[in-house]
Amino acid sequence: MTRRMRLLPFLLLALAFSPTPAWTSDMPWVAVSKDKTTFTLDPSDRPFVPWGFNYDHDGKGRLIED
Questions:
Q1: What digits encode the pLDDT tens for the residues 4-47?
Q2: Helix (H, G, I), strand (E, B), or coil: what is residue 13?
Q3: Is the pTM of this model over 0.90?
Q4: Backbone phi, then psi, for 32, in 5-degree steps?
Q5: Residue 37 CA to its chain's centroid (Å)
Q6: Contact 43, 55 (CB under 8 A)
Q7: Residue 52, phi-psi category: left (phi > 0), alpha (psi -120 to 50), beta (remainder)
Q8: What angle do CA 26, 32, 36 make, to 5 degrees?
Q9: How far apart are alpha carbons 9 and 25 in whole angstroms?
Q10: DSSP state string for 25-64
């Protein structure tokens, strides 16, 4: 058995029993805005602006996935 294969069970156990990071409880909920046109962060009503999505389009504006 390779060294990586011997370490795999220990890695899986460490991940299974690791505590949830504290920052997850501080994340605001994303909700539909009151006027139903955009998204906001709840309860502050600040706009939610997503970034980092990998959608691309062709020259006519169609999504490549379509």
A1: 678 888 778 777 777 766 555 677 899 999 999 999 999 899 99
A2: helix
A3: no
A4: -75, 135
A5: 22
A6: no
A7: left
A8: 160
A9: 29
A10: GGPPEEEE-TTSSSEEEETTTEEP--------B-TTS-BT
